[in-house]
Amino acid sequence: MPLDWSRVGSGHKEPLLRPREIYAALASRPWPYLRHEQGEVLERWFARRTDRDMVIKQNTGGGKTVVGLLIARSTLNEGVGKAVYLAPDTYLAAQVRAEADRLGLAATGDADDLAFRSGQAILVTTFQKLINGKSVFGVAGDGRPAIDLGIVVVDDAHAALATAEGQFRLTVAADHPAYAKLLALFANDLEAQSPKAWADVRAHDFTAVVRIPFWSWQARQSEVMAVLHPHARDEGFKFEWPLIANVLPLCSATVTSRGVELRPPCLPISMIPAFDKATRRVYLTATLADDSVLVTDLDADPKQVQLPVTPGSAADLGDRMILAPVALNRSLGDEAVRVLARQLADGDRDGDNVPDAPPVNVVVLVPSEKAAAAWEPYADRIHYVRNLEAGVAELKAGHVGLVVMVNKYDGVDLPGDACRVLVLDGVPRPMDATERREAAVLSGSPTLLARQIQRIEQGMGRGVRDSEDHCVVLLLGSDLAVATHDPRQRALLSPATRAQVELSRDIADQIQGEGLDAVRSAIGACLDRDPQWVAASRRALAEIRYADSGIVRPEAVTSRQAFDLAATGRLRDAADTMQRATTDVEDPAVRGLLLEQRAAYLNHVDPAAAQRMLVKALELNPFVLRPAAGVVPAQLRAAAVQAKAAAGFLEQEYTDGMSLVLGVKALMDEVVWGDERRSDAAEAAWLRLGLHLGVASTRPEKLYGTGPDNLWALTDERHAVIELKTGCSTETIAKSDLDQLGGSVRWDATTHAGVKSLAVMVHPSPVVDARGTAVDGMRVVTPQKWEALKRAVTVFAVALADGNGRWRDEQAVAEQLAVGKLMAGGLFQTYGETPRPQELKAQR
Fold first, then answer.
1. Residues in Cβ contact with 292 at an 8 Å cutoff, skipping those fewer than 6 apart
2. Ramachandran angles phi, psi of 85, nearest 5°
3. Higher model confidence: residue 71 or residue 469?
4. Beta-carbon contacts of residue 806 (< 8 Å; ≥ 6 apart)
């Protein structure tokens, strides 16, 4: 008779708890053993499994998915409670469920599945499914019982955090009826804070960002509630409103021409009891270098977060050769790299248009549709998030060619032949209102730089998915080249990625100044698995260890504590707690922003003291909110000796000649024509351009809410009043823009008595609209003139970099300023042109 296998070995054995034993007992395990690094992580987790908040760090491709599933299964077997595994999106959640099925672990995607509810299966779903105002897991105050959870495993924690922040951010779109009502309610306050930004918002300028002053926002909460509450069930409201309605007075309100964005200083994660009360919370991450955001966003225990679980070695990363062509040879422009990428996809290694090697899949990551357009002549496919799943499946199935992915720098697995060459063409820039405002306030600060480096590292991790994988990474553009060359920026990378960057620099040093043939040869060593390269690559990682402790900034801990106090009505205590947040912060930009938040809490109980606090914040960071009484503009003084000022600035900024050249090129590349989203970056670049040339420069409109975009003190008696319209696409300079420039000249005359103003317009056209009048003596920097200035400044940097620290030598700097016609007195005569009147067509 046939055997009844269900009766064999069933007995009364206790369920297995140790994850390694669970894996060993699986009937359909895909590998005989777990990888060594996975086993180490699982053993260390098991020893500390009662810690409520635990961060697990493994390199990209280190097998985090299997680790997370086994941890969830172990917790179920222990009887702690239900298990949820959260992926960043539906595509990745489906991949995790497929992996669970391959392992033979029970998993479901349905929160109502009895197997999940009874603790028999792991629920694999998205972070967004849990964290939203209509969550099936329950929301505080909605009357439904919350689902109790034993463990929540958060995969790709950095991506999950972005999702969480989005769920706790309500954006009232410009086409929503509440938008106009909110603007009408705060119109006077917005105009007082920044007349120009307010005018730009009304003119539908995408780049304009202005925050509603917290004192005005708090004073009108009853009116705000009357405007917003009737729309609580509207699309665009219903998933976010329940999460922030109770902390609305604490939210920052930021206005753009596209919407009003409401965002709390920290996430009130207690609104999702299932997550807030979960017995165990595990965060899986590869690139989360700064763990502070786990505290501010998810209210994780900072002490536990600072003790991550890692493998004993960081050598579990795949082989990557990371090259920035522009750092190898300044003549290797973006177009040359695009041609090279196309040739590699076709198997044309030597560039003679005849395939001589196996073709490979080349994947290009770009931050925007505009960046993707430059790749259209070379691309076989261009994928957006909406069609990414099919695109990735096609790459995994075989050779496709050159594939462009738009604005997807994390959460994509491209193992093995799916991606052998990865190109990063720029990094995503902040798009939502609060992030754009914060980026402007923290412009140039180490804090903002660290965030940018993390995004770069996330992108570089797409091409290798395990320790046996390999990929060439090409970084396109000067800003990415700086990230791998500047030692201050390299230090922000994870230890393993930094080791690979430094190994690749050894190759880069040998082919410095060579042409594309040298780059092709280096790439071939990685793609063809040259034994010497492979040995060097493995040796570079062999001794790399993960950091013993995570980074949790003290100000993040106190900011979280302050918010929790404020959310329970203890506003004075919240303000006092924020005082501690600034104690250990060295970055003045961040200290100013923290003082602004302290003032916002303090305003609830002592408005006068809050205004005094804001004055102190302004002394540290000139871009924070301006006090209700306004700010007296500081007098801008020209440098006594331009060359001396330039040499001093360059010495402070750059450690070597290559850093100088790459830094200047990255600076000039920030000015992008025809893209209004880049206008703020262009204004910041013009300010730094002045400093590079030894010219005192500032941004009055950002500082005081009035005045020009940029102001350069050319001499003690003469200023350049500069308005930037790089985002314009009009064929003439509009009357409104001319009027704005004239107003800025009058502002300068009033602010700086006795100084003559040179009006400068940075605009795609030198033609004055027939309805407008050019400002007397006005100069126009057109794209053609800008290119000439760009070349001159680049030559200036290259000449100073060619030698032993010549950029620090006042005499050498003076010579190059003169050669490039960059002396302040005549710069705009050379690199500007006289505006022309519009030629009107004759009437018939």
1. 551, 552, 553, 556, 557
2. -115, 120
3. 71
4. 799, 800, 812, 813
Count of CB atoms situated within 10 Å of the CB of 619: 12
* Strand pairing class (362-366; 107-108): unpaired
What 7-16 contacts at long range (C-beta under 8 Å, 24+ apart), as own/partner pairs, is 15/77, 15/78, 16/74, 16/77
Q: Which among 69, 258, 58, 266 has a CA at the least distance from the CA of 161?
A: 266
E-strand ranges in 407-454 read 421-425
Domain 642-837 adopts which CATH fold?
Answer: Restriction Endonuclease (3.40.91)
Q: Which amino acid is at 456?
A: I
Alpha carbons 555 and 302: distance in angstroms, whole number: 11
Domain covering 319-542, topology? Rossmann fold (3.40.50)
Fold agreement between 16-166+272-305 and 319-542: yes
**What is the tens place of the pLDDT at every residue in 499-528?**
888 888 888 888 877 777 888 888 999 999
Q: Using alpha carbons, list the distances in angstroms from residue 650 to 198, 369, 447, 695.
A: 36, 35, 21, 12
Domain ranges of the chain: 16-166+272-305, 187-260, 319-542, 554-620, 642-837
Top-confidence residue, 795 or 318: 795
- Residue 612, C-beta contacts closer than 8 angstroms, at least 6 positions apart: none
Note the maximum CA span of the chain.
109
Which tokens in the block code for residue 200? 């730009």
**Residues 456-476, mean pLDDT to the nearest whole number:** 84
16-166+272-305: in CATH 1.10.472.90: no
Burial profile 648-665: b = 16 or more Cβ within 10 angstroms, e = fewer:
bbbeebbeebbbbbbbbb
C-alpha dist (Å) from residue 486 to 233, 293, 480, 537, 641: 50, 25, 10, 21, 29
Highest mean pLDDT among 150-159, 380-389, 623-632, 758-767: 758-767
Neighbouring residues of 340: CB distance < 8 A, sequence distance ≥ 6 = 325, 351, 474, 516, 519, 520
pLDDT digits (tens, 9 = 90+) for 158-208: 778 888 888 999 999 999 999 999 999 999 999 999 888 888 899 888 778
Collapsing DSSP to helix, strand or coil, 685 comes out as helix
β-pair type (381-383, 53-57) = unpaired
Three-state DSSP string of 78-100: HCCCCEEEEECCHHHHHHHHHHH
Residues 710, 197, 219, 217, CA torsion sign: negative
Q: Rounded to whole angstroms, how far apart are CA atoms 678 and 728?
A: 11
Q: What is the pLDDT of residue 58?
A: 83
The whole-angstrom separation of Cα 690 and Cα 822 is 10
* C-beta of residue 636 within 8 angstroms of C-beta of residue 698: yes
Region 723-728: mean pLDDT is 91
